[in-house]
Design brief:
By secondary structure, this protein is an alpha+beta fold. The chain has helices at 91-107, 114-131; strands at residues 5-10, 15-21, 23-28, 31-35, 42-46, 49-55, 58-72, 75-84. Strands 1, 2, 3, 4, 5, 6, 7 and 8 form an eight-stranded mixed sheet that branches. The longest helix is centred in the C-terminal third of the chain and has 18 residues, at 114-131.
Length: 134
């Protein structure tokens, strides 16, 4: 059995990652999935969250929001609506988005799309968290 997996993370704009990894953690709709070489094939929906992958003695992180992942024994392909490396995240923008989402939730009201506000809050917090892991 191989000791590494090929990892590809693609957004509509570009290829974000094309690398090898010894272990990958991805945010599935029902919780985080740990993927090791030789994993059983599966397709899963990606939620808002953090992707972490280990290469040698280094763990790399990305912020991701929505998409799908195809897991094969030797390759993981993630098609994401958005994905960002820590260096690409504008922290001030993410903090402003977090404040807007918190204000929207706090204000409430009958016209509030609560799920959309929660998603915006979670995405902003994930971006802030990942940016701190440079």
């Amino acid at each position: 059995m191989a000791e590494t997996l090929q990892l590809e993370i693609v957004t509509p704009d570009r290829m974000i990652v094309s690398d090898t990894a010894q272990e990958i953690q991805i945010p599935g709709k029902s919780g985080y999935l740990g993927i090791l070489p030789g994993h059983a094939p599966l397709i899963t929906e990606i939620a808002v969250g953090e992707i972490a992958y280990r290469k040698a003695n280094e763990t790399r992180y990305l912020s991701v929001a929505w998409g799908f992942a195809e897991v094969l024994p030797e390759k993981v392909t993630i098609l994401a609506e958005t994905a960002e490396r820590p260096a690409d995240i504008d922290v001030a923008r993410a903090q402003a988005a977090k404040q807007r989402a918190e204000a929207r939730i706090k204000q409430g009201g009958t016209d509030l799309d609560y799920q959309r506000a929660e998603d915006a809050l979670q995405r902003a917090q994930t971006r802030i968290d990942v940016a701190g892991k440079k």
